[in-house]
Write a structure and sequence with these properties.
435 residues; alpha+beta; 2 domains; six-stranded mixed beta sheet; three-stranded antiparallel beta sheet; 14 helices; 11 strands; 15% strand
């Protein structure tokens, strides 16, 4: 039995995915946010007003819920861009007097008529792209969740070209993939799970082992998906979170309205530690119950607040006189199961379940923070401590050790290497103390 459903049918996983985009980020180009970062953030390329993004997000959300389709979205979308005075990519059309149009809009004119035909055509295309991209990616992300729920009984996926409508101009690469059949857990779907391009209408069928005519690896067409789309909309990872944060950092640096939104976004992410605490608690309970923990997963577990982040980077530059590169590549701190088991080896200082889950809170507001540049270039360790007077004996602090991880000379992630009970901080050279 193959599982198929209409693109216009709304289901809870589809809507949950879209509503899970808690960040509405201004961008100047579609390149600002890429890959699975779109699962975390809602953007419209070139839309730089936070209020506009909020309004359009609500329009799409209502449309997903009601299932009314493109025409209803088009009408509401045009109303919103009129209200906010936003003309997408109008700078590409030298025959348009943008200021004159905005004057009309601001004086009460409520229709985007009397525009040059080439811009009317572009606006229609752009409106359709915004609608289709959000609907299809949300649909496929929700579908991926359903696939995971059913894969015990339907363990294979079959690629289908034009599954949600025959394209006017079929892409040879997508046609070549039609019929490729592989297990749902195969890494192929990390880069080739649809959609695989703008206006892509490809999909997948979920099928049983009896129906599956598995494609041998050597027979899979060598089709490289454009990097913009070479990701699985239903999956997120640390790269997605880091990509979003790097964009937030750029917003803060730009100043003005960008900085206002960037500051607020940073603050919200640093404050939202609930999911991270729950994940850490789960790891730690599993360790206490079994004495070991399996797997190689890496997860974002904490966010350094903006003020502390700036102080750490500034102090590092002072100590090294600018010769040691970066100490922090991102304020997102991640932890792998390898890092966790390293911390768990310190049996005599092993944190309790309740204290281990406090790591995100410690990072957010440590009592003590200092850094130690290491011998090798581009390497330093950050130490953060939080005091709890209820701890027994002399060890009244939780110590968290943060180190960068490098690949080809660049920081690829900032990791929490270990955490344990510690005594009162030993004295450090004053220049190494951040807080």
């Amino acid at each position: 039995m193959a599982v198929n459903s209409s693109f216009n049918v709304v289901f809870k996983q589809m809507q949950n995915h879209f509503r899970g985009k808690l960040l509405k980020l201004p961008t100047e180009s579609w390149r600002d946010i890429q890959h699975s970062a779109h699962s975390k953030a809602f953007v419209i390329a070139g839309a730089t007003k936070a209020a506009l993004l909020e309004d359009v997000f609500e329009v799409i959300d209502r449309n997903i819920e009601s299932g009314k389709g493109y025409n209803e979205f088009r009408k509401e979308f045009r109303q919103k861009i009129v209200e906010h005075g936003w003309l997408p990519a109008v700078e590409r059309f030298p025959n348009i007097d943008r200021n004159e149009i905005l004057k009309k809009l601001q004086s009460g004119e409520k229709k985007l008529t009397n525009l040059p035909k080439d811009y009317q055509k572009y606006l229609g295309w752009r409106t359709q792209i915004i609608y289709d991209t959000n609907m299809h990616t949300s649909y496929m992300a929700g579908n991926w969740e359903q696939i995971q729920e059913a894969k015990e009984y339907l363990p294979f996926l079959r690629y289908r070209h034009g599954y949600y409508g025959e394209p006017v101009n079929p892409r040879e690469q997508h046609v070549a993939l039609d019929g490729v059949t592989l297990p749902a857990d195969d890494s192929f779907w990390d880069t080739h799970y649809p959609p695989n391009g703008w206006n892509c209408s490809c999909g997948v069928e979920q099928i049983s082992a009896q129906e599956a005519n598995v494609t041998p690896k050597e027979n899979i067409p060598n089709v490289k998906i454009d990097q913009t789309w070479a990701y699985n909309t239903g999956k997120t990872d640390d790269k997605a979170v880091i990509s979003v944060f790097r964009h937030v950092e750029r917003m803060v640096e730009k100043g003005g309205d960008y900085k206002i939104v960037g500051d607020k976004t940073w603050e919200n992410l640093a404050a939202n530690t609930g999911a991270m605490e729950g994940m850490l608690e789960s790891w730690h309970k599993n360790y206490y119950a079994k004495g070991e923990i399996a797997g190689r997963q890496t997860r974002a577990v904490a966010v350094i607040p903006q003020e502390l982040y700036s102080k750490i980077k500034s102090r590092f530059d002072e100590i090294t006189q600018g010769k040691k590169g970066e100490i922090l590549g991102t304020p997102i701190l991640s932890m792998s199961l390898n890092d966790y088991t390293h911390a768990a080896r310190k049996e005599h200082d092993l944190l309790t379940v309740g204290d281990f889950k406090k790591i995100p809170e410690i990072i957010k507001s440590p009592d003590v923070c200092y850094i130690e540049p290491q011998g090798s270039e581009n390497n330093a360790t950050i130490f953060m401590k939080k005091r709890n007077p209820e701890f027994p004996g002399e060890k009244k602090y939780i110590k968290v050790v943060v180190k960068p991880e490098y690949k080809n000379g660049a920081i690829v992630r900032q990791k929490i290497r270990t955490a344990y009970y510690s005594e009162f901080p030993t004295k450090r050279p004053s220049e190494s103390v951040v807080k």
